[in-house]
Specification:
Blueprint: E1 4-12, E2 21-29, E3 33-37, H1 44-51, E4 59-64, E5 67-68, H2 74-80, E6 81-84, H3 96-106, H4 119-131, H5 147-159, E7 165-169, H6 177-192, E8 197-201, H7 205-211, E9 214-219, E10 222-227, H8 229-232, H9 235-242, E11 246-249, E12 257-260
Helix pairs in contact: 3-4, 3-5, 4-5
Length: 261
Amino acid sequence: MPSTLRARNLVVGYDGHNPVLENVDLAVPKGQFLCLLGPNGAGKSTFLRALAGLLPLQGGELTLDGAALSTFSPSARARRIGFLPQEIHPHFSYRVDEAVALGARVAGHGHWFETQLGAEAKVAVAKALERVGALDLLHRPLDELSGGERRRVLVASVLAQEPDWLLLDEPAAMLDLHHQASLFRTLRRLAHHDGLGVLCVTHDFNLAASFADEVILLHQGAICAQGSATDVLTADNLTPVFGEHFELVPRSSGPPAILPK
């Protein structure tokens, strides 16, 4: 059985409010690239934060390789699960290599108090930046980058942790079409060739259909469809969830394009 990050009967909410997620089951096995889709307010970001062990549970359980996630220390959890939230606003003016080095130090390449990167950390930083096509940004100040460039650097900082699982909340936001496709190819390669378990939130049906092994459709805090893109991304499934009518347009190769009518 593959190594798995698993949610069973997950219930998550915030104080004084009804649960955002109720009785959600999902397994994220290593070696698979999964995409999570759903409308705004469906609970996608809450789900990722819960899977990363960053939110208290109101019910159900989270396990990593069969062990309760709550038994892992924060540092041990960070070495196994890399999490990229939807928005990050650094409070300091880091250089790119310094920002990515924060992730490398989670993986044990150097210490937090070091001001100079050691040889091991430099290799980890360069490798992570190369994976997202951002090695040319190595010595740039983070606050001088475009939104898309900064997003690639933040993805690299999570990769530098060398985790077993990647949980990414809209990592392709603000990227141009070339870098969106390049990032999703990287995520698929990390799953298929490096053996990571990857769960990615996206609003782009066509990126998910082109690259993901499985697609999960979340609506009102519950999973309403899960499986291959061909089975899940149908007009019958998407119309009631998004309140729009869709058509599937055949292409010469690959899955059909999904377009609003």
